[in-house]
Amino acid sequence: MKILLLEDDFAYKESISEYLQSLGYDVDTASNGLEACDKIALNVYHLFIFDIKVPEISGHEVMKYVKSLNITTPIMIMTSLIDIDDMAIGYELGCNEYLKKPFELAEMKFRVAELMRKYYSVGDKSIVFIDKIYEFNTASKDIKFKDKTINLTTGEMEILEYLLLRKGSFVGIDEIISEVGNLGTNSVDIRMHIMKIRQKTSKNFIISKRGLGYKINA
Fold it and tell me: DNA-binding region(s): which residue ranges (predicted)?
């Protein structure tokens, strides 16, 4: 699970980042609001942790930017601000959790874990992450990027599911033709399906290697 941490205090940023990484989270950091917005535009995160009083633009402005992109990622605010008006602004902008500085790292651990459980049902093995930024639900057969569903045809979905069964290994075209439904009987048909999957996702979604076939990293 990937977290973006916005914090301008170096010591706070380093200690929180290192602690969250020790718990198994993938952590990106930003020292100011503009840097955070740039990273949000380019990456998919499962949790935002924002300080409010940061350089360039405030954490509140970053929250507005998140909402303008229709991103539903949960947001935790950590701040020394205790004024009720500041708290009200945070919740009105979509804050899901409020952590007052100073705090114990153990408190952050439990609050982060609860948000992950609530919003992602962590431990649900039906969720598979592909290329680190795509989420595939093996139960509902939905694939999403930034909470937006990607529509695949039946043939494209069958190839995706088979590559996931063989995840981490290259699969030859002959094997795909033999094992996966009615996809066509020649390599041109398979390549066309894979090309369309890449067009709907990214060129690195399915990796190819001459002589070995195709592989998906999940």
Answer: 124-218
Q: Are 45 and 120 in contact (CB under 8 A)?
A: no
Amino acid at 35: E
Which residues lie across from 137 on neighbouring strands? 127, 142
Q: Give the integer Cα–Cα distance in Å for 146 and 40.
A: 10
Q: What is the pLDDT of residue 5?
A: 95
Question: Which residue spans within the chain are E strands per DSSP?
Answer: 2-6, 26-30, 47-50, 75-79, 97-100, 127-130, 134-137, 142-145, 148-150, 207-209, 213-215
pLDDT tens digits, one per residue of 194-204: 999 999 998 88
Q: E-assigned strands of 7-104?
A: 26-30, 47-50, 75-79, 97-100
> In angstroms, rounded to a whole number, what is the distance separating the alpha carbons of residues 36 and 57?
10
What is the pLDDT, as a whole number, of residue 63? 92
All domains in the chain, ordered by first residue = 2-120 (3.40.50.2300), 127-215 (1.10.10.10)
